[in-house]
Design brief:
about 280 residues, 2 strands, mainly alpha
Length: about 280
């Protein structure tokens, strides 16, 4: 690295600005998506996107190595391997979820006290309603036409039996569902809550070690090139690309952060932006 302490400080501030900006923007969109439509599979979806991006990066690095003898992208193999193993764990996590049939029967039992029983009284009351003729059907007419038993027969709940009075007798279903994360699906309470830590250990440390070292090396190699007449835009693009590669593995987990952490990081981003606008060597 350069012996100029002011230049070292300026480069550190640039990286701090880009890291904090990426974290703040990524948290805003991930948290917003989770708040609008919470899903227990958001971590899995993010890993799928990371898998696709890391595969494209690995293919690009392979072409550079075979055709142009550029071997500096060796980190892409470890990058891809860590994300692949984390995605495999996400698929294995689905085996802990209850089956659709068992969960449908369990949900039906939970909702049964709030629904009206199919007794003879309700059956008679329904029979008094005039039937809907085929020629009276409109675009808002239900396709089931009140045939609830046929719907239940095809919805996976095959253990319900109607007696002669119309009462429904179902076999009890016992599911040990823990409390899910607020707003997410009820069945997600059965998923192991510790698996995300193992996935984070697979994708984060190796990326920080390899990409961080490459970022430091490129910083020491590129910070003097604008003095030779080269464009400084390439330097900033290289910093932005390395920042994205460095922080992308925390994307699947960033929506779990509370607002305190990104708020503090955003304040760091504002402070570093102000410093970069007024301090040497960024002034004319």
């Amino acid at each position: 690295m350069s012996s100029n302490p002011l230049l070292l400080l300026a480069l550190t501030i640039v990286y701090s600005m880009m890291l904090s900006a990426w974290f703040s923007v990524a948290w805003f969109f991930s948290r917003g998506a989770s708040a609008m439509r919470p899903s227990a599979l958001q971590r899995m979806y993010a890993l799928i996107w990371l898998f696709a991006g890391s595969f494209a990066l690995l293919a690009f690095v392979t072409v550079l190595s075979n055709n142009y003898q550029v071997a500096g992208g060796y980190f892409a193999m470890f990058y891809f391997a860590g994300i692949f193993l984390a995605l495999v764990l996400s698929y294995l996590e689905l085996f802990f979820a209850p089956t659709k049939t068992a969960f449908a029967r369990y949900s039906g039992q939970e909702d049964e006290p709030a629904s009206r029983p199919l007794t003879g009284t309700t059956t008679a009351a329904r029979s008094e309603e005039p039937p809907i003729a085929d020629d009276d059907a409109t675009e808002t007419t239900s396709l089931l036409r009140g045939d609830r038993r046929s719907f239940a027969r095809h919805s996976g709940r095959r253990d319900s039996v109607d007696d002669e009075n119309g009462n429904r007798d179902e076999e009890p279903i016992q599911l040990d569902l823990k409390q899910p994360y607020p707003g997410e699906q009820d069945w997600s309470g059965k998923l192991p809550g510790w698996l995300w830590l193992l996935q984070l250990l697979l994708v984060a440390p190796i990326v920080v070690i390899l990409v961080g070292q490459i970022a430091l090396l490129l910083t020491s190699a590129l910070h003097q090139t604008p003095a030779d007449g080269n464009s400084s835009l390439f330097v900033y693009l290289a910093f932005a690309l390395l920042t994205t590669l460095l922080l992308a593995p925390i994307g699947p987990f960033i929506h779990r952060f509370t607002w305190h952490v990104p708020t503090f990081v955003f304040l760091i981003c504002v402070a570093t932006v102000i410093y970069n606008l007024v301090a040497f060597p960024f002034s004319r």
